[in-house]
Amino acid sequence: MDARGKNNPIPDTSWYDDSALSFNLDTADQLAGLAQLVINGNDFAGKTINLTSDISLAAYRNGYGWTPISLGDAEGNLTPFEGTFDGKGHIISGLTINAPNASYNYGLFGSVDGGTVKNLGLINVNINVGQTGNRSTGGITGFLGLLGTVENCFVTGTISGNNNVGGLVGWNHGNVKNCYFIGSVSGRDYVGGLVGVNNRTATEVSNCYAAGWGVRGRNFVGGLAGGTPYVSDSARILGSVALNQRIQRTSGASNNFGRVLGQTTGILNNNHGRADMVLPSGITIVSSKDGADVTNAGVRTWWETSGPGGPGWTVPDNKGAATESSPWWWGGSRPRLWFER
Hints:
Number of helices: 3
Shape: globular
Largest sheet: 16 strands, parallel
Structural class: mainly beta
Number of domains: 1
Strand content: 35-45%
Number of strands: 28
Helix content: under 10%
Oligomer: single chain
Distance between the termini: 37 Å
CATH topology: Pectate Lyase C-like
């Protein structure tokens, strides 16, 4: 019992059978059991986790809150998740993390390296990581490694960290596609509405958007991505839209701020930024890192024609026309994913 007389949640690993390749989870305790198994060294490579119902993590809000599925860092010092996590169109609500520092990677997952997270929604996320340490923070995962994928996912809420902070992914070495974030993101350096760091030649963000209050930080801050630390790399942002209300400088005099990306590196094609987005003083629009102006993103046909268009941005009026492979449908004022009500 805790100090308020409530039962503390107990992670459940009873569902796991080492000989099985696929597992169905439907409770918060089973999800916490997955985190426990990965932290104890099981990377789930070649295995699939299916979510079979919506889950509330309200019971895991006390203290430091949720313990991520893998606390692994960018150097691989701890076991990452290497399997497939298929949300099957279900929603996880109330993810809360209160970490005193960024000694580990934080999110629903800490580190996904070579694995996949797909078809999942996170709502009412509240992640608050202290501004010391140099690991990464994101709604879905703090770190997404080479060959890792996050697709057909969305996150709503508030995410705050130190460096490498994103609405979906803190440090992206993989591929993020057909996803969105709505809310606020804050940190110090490399802070983005979707990903904090977009890094390495094979890295890509495509057919995504960010909206909501906006993004704030000190240096390398963007509506979709903060920046690319290794300027020789060809990390890509393609066919994506920044609809954030504002980009805010918290301190200093850096000019590394942009509607799409906080610096002019990498490959940026067919991206758009909200025309009336509020930018820090002294920042001028540069088409490569800020994208083309958009004033009518609330019109369905803009997304398919004048807007980002291209493969993936078919946005039918009818929700029933959206599928996992063509995931978008028009939700009244913006695109929504195939599984949203």
